[in-house]
What does this fold into?
Amino acid sequence: MRAVAIIGVGSHPTGRFHDRPLKALAYPAIWGALEDAGVTPADIGVAYVGNSLAGLLTGQEGVRGQVVLQHSGLNGLPIVNVENACASAATALRGAWLEVASGAVDVALAVGVEKMNVGDSARTIGALSAVSELDLSEMGMQFTASYAIHPKVNLKSRMRDYGWTAADFAKPAVKNSFNGSLNPLAQHQRRLTIEEVVQSRIVVDPLTLLMCSSISDGAAAAVLCAAELAPRFTSKTPIRIASCVLQSGVYRLPGDARPDSATTSAFAAYEKAGVSPEDLQAIELHDAMAPAELMLYERLGLCAEGEGPRLIDERVTTLDGRVPVNPSGGLCSRGHPVGATGLLQICELVWQMRGEAGTRQIVPRPHVTMAQNQGGLLLGQDSAAYAVTILTD
Amino acid sequence: MRAVAIIGVGSHPTGRFHDRPLKALAYPAIWGALEDAGVTPADIGVAYVGNSLAGLLTGQEGVRGQVVLQHSGLNGLPIVNVENACASAATALRGAWLEVASGAVDVALAVGVEKMNVGDSARTIGALSAVSELDLSEMGMQFTASYAIHPKVNLKSRMRDYGWTAADFAKPAVKNSFNGSLNPLAQHQRRLTIEEVVQSRIVVDPLTLLMCSSISDGAAAAVLCAAELAPRFTSKTPIRIASCVLQSGVYRLPGDARPDSATTSAFAAYEKAGVSPEDLQAIELHDAMAPAELMLYERLGLCAEGEGPRLIDERVTTLDGRVPVNPSGGLCSRGHPVGATGLLQICELVWQMRGEAGTRQIVPRPHVTMAQNQGGLLLGQDSAAYAVTILTD
It folds into this structure.
């Protein structure tokens, strides 16, 4: 397969935009990506559009991509609507990558867009439950509660086994709030303290409000092309997709000792890219709840089990660290419009790798980076979808 | 890219199955396809799952494929949930094709599943409206009405310009009801007469009830592999995918003289497969409303404009004709569970090409066939998605 490069990215700010429909969120991202890449709609051979919740939240159940793209000049081409819960945008990216890598097209567009603020947060939370296996909600469980209950992410067991404290759980939120404060596109641009996070109201013990990502609207897009064609469109540094891995979670019976799918998907991506965890110079990862970042450190091979908080204490993953994690602010500060998040991660990494990240620019500029995106929940299973993308320049 | 073959297909019967959830519809199709192909779940490298309406109709908004496949042994692998309204299953097929053609995997599964009977047909019709651009429904339009109003399928203009009559509109329904009567998996297995079709109640003048496809539940699946690997799994004739084309509709201003997207997608498929319309020996096409079959005859290059009814009068497209169309019974008789239809078409063609179609077997066995699937509706546009697959043995 051919080498594939990202040559343009664009995003809408993430936040609460009650009056903006899907199209209005998507267009700035799409036009931004096209302009950044130096391509016109006529250059695009295929479009993948990721969205998770529009059926239940906006009523637009079908052909969401065609509706979003209708007046963009992007019609006639193949449009593939993809969904994988909070990993929908990364799934769109993978589709676009495969189209270009296979030679089916030379230039592809990946879009992720989500409208979550619809004036009734109970409706939004209900829709989020519907990206789980519905038997779960029949049992009275919710997505957030599952983070406390699910055995693989059981925070209580980390407290018992490794002595983690509420302050440890808060550390990623505090670190990422600093990064978000430097990101003009972030939903939350306020620097938090450990005390503020720990003392905010409890959502599900031991998770507090400021450890959780918010209900967000947003959109992001990327233009991909065959790496050898990049100079035809832009003089900017093409960012290579070294690997792009998608896995679904594994269904587990009690006692199943196979590694978590967050681990297997990351290590599959390392292997395909020919890199090790130690090679990474920046990571955007799926901190839907702040403590998840600590456990992902372990699963991505950045540290041994139980050592997550140390990576923040020792400033390994801070913006000035050896491998900054969530320089954008991550899901908790940058925001988590679920069907857009995977491409918002890609936007951040591309900006960082090009040296275009403004006051939150990682120095020196990173050359090997990773986006880790996951989503959905099934009873007795890891998350439903895991998507890992490794970028190099 | 590599040559790709379909080595196994399976389907659930199409009809009204009030008590069966998505999983129960999908499993017989999936197990049927795997068994037919001689593969096990461990052989499958990726799964594409097409569905259009589950978010609004069953509440399962996200990770539908993971939910359907959870207890099938098919997890851990990449699962991509795709949607393109009534062309969702063909979009799943195209995804699976690209995975194998590109060399990303050796064996892929494509699934289409739809549960439309939820005990409240108004809810189902509402959900169908939501696979249109929603501005349409705000104008009081519905999917069915659009078939009468949309300028490209304006039946009234065919009556005026070519003298088509209500009896002409009924002809595909009558022809296909005969085929459906021979198909034990069809929703409607009753032979209709012109009089019965014309005199059934008017839905939208000039469309009558028996000219319309019904609300259907159903599922279909196909296993694809690299053509050179087919003998490793099965001794049955591998059915080659000669081309697999997806296009979105073109947004049109009044006076736009470009050919309809049904035409451009079909001719793109002919070109990629190196065949002509005259080479086709069987076709499954998208007769969501019976008269659409007549207009598709024109658009697929089977006859000149206005000549559609003649192809049935002269028994060109009947089961004993030169190029039988909708041998399964088509959408009106076989049934139209929207997100499954594209793969139900593929099942029928594979069975016909292998000589496994029982009493409706086309004689001699066809060697070059086409599936034409389309879906969704946007204001000022052709259908939202067109998918055309040409098969050869």
Notes: The radius of gyration of chain B is 19 Å.
